[in-house]
Amino acid sequence: MAQPVEAAVEGLVGGTDKVELDAEFEEHLGDSGTLAFRVAYGVLRHREDAEDVAQEALARAYQSFDRLRDRARFRSWLVRICWRLALDHQRAAARRARRELEVPVLRNPIDVEGLASRNEFRDRLWQAIGDLPEKQRQVVVLAGILGHDLREVGELLGVPHGTVRSRMHTARKRLAEALR
Amino acid sequence: MSCEGFRKMLGDAALGEGSPELEFHLSGCEACRAALAEERALLDRIDAELQDSLETEPSLAFLPAVRRRVDALRAQGQSARHWWLMPALATLVGLLVGGHFVREAAHGPTAAVPPAVGPAAPTAPQEPAVAGSEAPVIASAEQAEPSPGRALTTSVPATRPEPAVAPSQPRVFVPPEDEQAVRRLVRRLRGRAARTSALAPTAEGPFDFTLKPVEERPEVVSLDDLMLQGDAPGLEEPPSYDLTVENPGRKT
């Protein structure tokens, strides 16, 4: 019974649009919650921190959702919010000198030597990614999240496909040099 | 160009930017082909590692936590949007309470007033009274019918030291369609006055009941509030009356 009453009150104060917005945001939340987490994780490499940042990004997205003119751009908008918040969080954490690196849980058990080797490679990779210029870093992380679909990366970042390819090319070259 | 020179080009070649010279060299140099394969393997490993480490899922508690956060924000937003509700409700309650007291005042000292005694002295014989109270006694039944357009006043004896309604208190407006019922009320009061006027003397003098036509018909108090619903047959656009109750005994 509470819902109709609430809806009626919302209707009285011009809140009908808000109800629709809430429903629309809920759909986006289901679709893009994991994306937000992965973007944050791609920057922070720490699960709990990534969840906190993604949650904050989604909360801010909710608060500003009614001002988002092109709802089709929600994912792109969310990625940018999340990326920025994750960078801020990372810088703050670095200032506090308590940044942690997660030891990933491997899907297939391997020998200890292989695990150590893999972790070392992964650590060096993420160190190298962290050293990339921000625009290249963004492309690399999103490409990793999206299965290297550079066209979708371009759509998310709102930059031309050619620009994304160029940034990706330069970033991979740098990463290969760092890891060679 | 030596192998050392071509090795610098292998990075671009692994990324798909080979040159005809490099292709020609690779066709005849197994070491450089192996170096190119190594470069491509490195890039593949980078991509795979990147994708693998980012294909992680948030914990099961993540989305519920986000929803709780959004719900909290939604609740905050609603209370912010409805900031005016509390003042509006307070005003509404104030109006209702005030209206109740106005109505009580219009009805006069109904429950607390003992029957009036003694004959009433009309103060304005040409102007019959309309009373909002059932307690006072009206002196003259002949003065009950007011002339439209004129203010009619009559006097009734006071039933207690305090006035029923001070002159400065809110007035009760009678809608035109209720005029007949008001007149019936007046007659009833007068009838009661006739029955009780001999019971007790008045100490403070008569109350004045004034019936005044009003220019407009305010929607303040209907006759329903005077509990006379259904008692009024229709009349042809009679004027509205402004009913006031005064106690001349309190006047200075």
Rg of chain A: 20 Å
Number of helices of chain B: 7
Q: Summarize model confidence as the mean pLDDT of chain B.
A: 62
Which blocks of ≥5 consecutive residues of chain B have pLDDT under 50?
Answer: 110-170, 197-210, 216-241, 244-252
Q: How many distinct helices of chain A?
A: 8
Greatest chain-chain contact = A-B, 46 and 34 residues
What is the tally of beta strands of chain B? 4
**Total number of strands of chain A:** 0
Largest sheet entry of chain A: none
> What would you call the quaternary organization?
heterodimer
Q: What series of H and E elements makes up the topology of chain A? A: HHHHHHHH
Unreliable stretches of chain A, pLDDT < 50, 5 or more residues?
1-14, 105-110
Mean pLDDT of chain A: 81
How much of the sequence of chain A is in beta strands? under 5%
How are strands sequenced across the largest beta sheet of chain B? 1-3-4-2
Largest β sheet strand count, sense and barrel closure of chain B? 4 strands, antiparallel
Helix content of chain A: over 70%
Would you write up a description of this structure?
The complex is a heterodimer of chains A (180) and B (252). Chain A has 8 helices and no strands. Chain A has helices at residues 2-12, 16-44, 47-64, 74-96, 112-131, 134-145, 150-157, 161-179. Chain A is globular. Chain A starts with a helix and ends with a helix. Chain B has helices at residues 3-7, 10-14, 20-28, 30-54, 62-81, 85-107, 179-196; strands at 152-157, 172-174, 206-214, 240-246. The model of chain B is unreliable at 110-170, 197-210, 216-241 and 244-252 (pLDDT under 50).
Short characterization:
The complex is a heterodimer of chains A (180) and B (252). Helices cover 78% and strands 0% of the residues of chain A.
